[in-house]
Amino acid sequence: MLQSTEVLREKPMRIVTPTVQVRAREPSVSQEEAPPCIVASHLSAFFGDAAAVKDVSISIPQNAVTAIIGPSGCGKSTLLRCFNRMHETVPGTRVEGSVEILGSSIYGDGTSPIAVRRHVGMVFQRPTPFPTMSIRANVAAGLRVDSKSHATRGATSEIVEEALQRAGLWAEVKDQLDESAMALSGGQQQRLCIARALATRPRVILLDEPTASLDPLSTQKVEELVYDLRQTVTVVIVTHNMQQAARVSDGTAFLLMGELVEFASTRELFTAPKDPRTESYITGRFG
Amino acid sequence: MRTARSRHLVSGAMIGLTYLAAVLATLPLLLILVHLLTKGASSLSLAFFTHMPRPVGEPGGGMANAIVGTLVLIGIATVIGLPIGIGAGLYLAEKKSSPLASTVRFLSDVLNGLPSIVMGIFAWEILVRPIGHFSALAGGVALGSMMIPLVTRTTEEMLLVVPTSLREAALALGYPRWRTSISVVLRTALAGIVTGALVAVARIAGETAPLLFTAIGNAFWSTSLSQPIAALPLQIFAYANSPYDEWHQQAWAGALVLIAIVLIISLAARFATRSRFGAPVD
């Protein structure tokens, strides 16, 4: 289980991988006291008969950034896609076990995947702005589809501004809100997608390798953004970049062949991994 | 070893050949247009669009009834062909691998290859024989049935080009599936679907064979769907087969108008659905 960084401070540091610098930070909320946000128990996800995620039980804390790392094909994206019921949108797939988000079971009877997805935002590997919509319409896309929030025009434009502010994009696009989102650079498009996900004010935001297609500078911007987001929202980020996990996350989960090998505070996982497989992976012996 | 010079020569020759092929590909269209303009333009006048056909020997006269008739037939065909075709294309793209989709896809291709006269006989069998007389509706149904497979397959192809990631992005925002299909996938592919629909309209606008047993033609003014209706291709066919010089002239003019109608419909639809953000995404 995730431990408080206070405890870790007492331990002697053993840097197993010199390339990974763990960002020194003030422990935000004591993670042991904060109630968990996402609780998965005995979660398995299948493509046909093949299990991509095997019997994973994990408790992800609130208002923190949790990274999921692991080699390609280890099931980290699939695990992420179980948290907003996107896994089941692929034909022939199936989920077993249970996932609770903030106390409600998202796979429970009568829970609609649409309602789940409105509260759990997701950003993908490649930027996915809607090409037929303006920048403004892209950010407001999630609002317009929610029949319960018939936001007025004025309220919508406030929400759009707020979401773009939070995504750190407002200053760059405020004079071109009615232009095509496709005119933006790749990094801007990705931050637009983050703004779009934030606009519905989700409690959780899932990032599936959000910087995989971005240049270093844009990557840095997105990482800073992720780091700031944890003030207000629970972030789960899948990454195959260990440095990135070390830079942005409070806790890190290591997945191998669909199994959860280890989940600990990022500092602990990268400096004093308990499982030898974790150590081999982070020191670069495989993957 | 080839020298740089010989490589440049070969490259130049190859580029020249592709230019030649491009010119040859558009040559038939250019020749047809030039020919129609020289032969038909002289018979075109306001009267051609506003007057009814006159008997042989009487000067003047026009094809007002056939022009309107063609527009009516295109209208009926589009009302039948577009919704069914786009709906079927949406189904094929959404349920790519279901057994029904494979069947529909195969049958669409068969229907696409069906000789148009067979379509005419089919419409005659279901709409002319039971009712007892030829009608505009039967002609429109025959043309519409020809449109369906064309629109189905182009719609499907255009929808499949829309990246899955876009569909997933909409679903992840809490879009219901139907709304994802309509306001994201269909809308993104709209320019391509419109292009496909226009190709289908252009294709059926000039069809003569399916109308022979259905709309059959009408020497008088009629816009009634239950009555035989005149159509440009039929009129052109009848006039071109006649022994009279002035009718030949009118047939040329009719052919020119037919091409102009197709062109105007394409331009208008392109204009109406052009992307707000510059060029259509096709």
Description of the molecule:
- The complex is a heterodimer of chains A (287) and B (282).
- Chain A has 287 residues and is α/β, with parallel strands linked by helices.
- Chain A has a single domain, classed as P-loop containing nucleotide triphosphate hydrolases (Rossmann fold, 3-Layer(aba) Sandwich).
- In chain A, 33% of the residues lie in helices and 23% in strands.
- Chain A has helices at 5-10, 76-82, 113-119, 135-144, 153-166, 170-173, 186-199, 216-229, 242-248, 266-271, 276-282, and strands at 36-47, 50-61, 65-69, 93-101, 104-105, 120-123, 204-208, 234-238, 251-256, 259-265.
- In chain A, the strands form two sheets. Chain A has a six-stranded mixed sheet with strand order 6-7-8-3-9-10, with helices on both faces. A four-stranded antiparallel sheet of chain A has the order 2-1-4-5, with helices on one face.
- Chain B is mainly alpha-helical.
- Chain B has one domain (61-278): MetI-like fold, CATH 1.10.3720.
- Chain B is built from twelve helices and no strands.
- Chain B has helices at residues 4-40, 46-50, 64-94, 99-113, 116-128, 136-161, 164-172, 177-188, 190-205, 209-212, 232-240, 245-272.
- In chain B, helix 4 (99-113) crosses helix 6 (136-161).
- Chain B is globular.
